[in-house]
Amino acid sequence: MITIAEIASNPLDVAAHLTAVADPRAGATALFVGTVRDHDPGADGEVVRLEYSSHPDAAQTLANLAAELDAPDLRIAITHRIGDLAVGDVAIVCAVSSAHRAEAFDVSRALVERVKVALPIWKRQVTADGEGSWVGL
């Protein structure tokens, strides 16, 4: 069951994702929280913020990616943030619960990896000198 699949411009609530996948049949919950870091191999200097933008179909694409991995004993909650994010801000939250830990880990990792490849969200990193560069284009 997909409980959350959203693109959000407001700060992400990690606890809300955990609550969304809570289930008495679940023996495991895997949680991934992706945050903005202050460095990138492709950056010329210290990264101070990321600017995320998305295609209008991004929320539906995210829901479709989650649906591809959904199974009867799973609960999935995933949100990707857009807008200006500072170092330390949460960019993505993915929580998956299942009866057993292996499936929760596997599905969480697979979904995050699919998001990195297929979700139409673009990232521009800005360095301390004010210069910006697009990542992954």
Q: Could you characterize the architecture of this molecule?
A:
The protein has one domain: Aldehyde Oxidoreductase, domain 3. It has 3 helices and 8 strands. The longest helix is centred in the C-terminal third of the chain and has 18 residues. The mean pLDDT is 95.
Layout: helices, strands, pairs:
Blueprint: E1 2-8, H1 14-21, E2 28-35, E3 47-54, H2 58-69, E4 75-81, E5 83-86, E6 90-98, H3 101-118, E7 121-127, E8 132-135
Parallel strand pairs: 1-4
Antiparallel strand pairs: 2-6, 3-5, 3-7, 4-6, 7-8
Name some characteristics of this structure.
about 140 residues, single chain, Molybdenum cofactor biosynthesis protein MoaE, four-stranded mixed beta sheet, alpha+beta, Aldehyde Oxidoreductase, domain 3
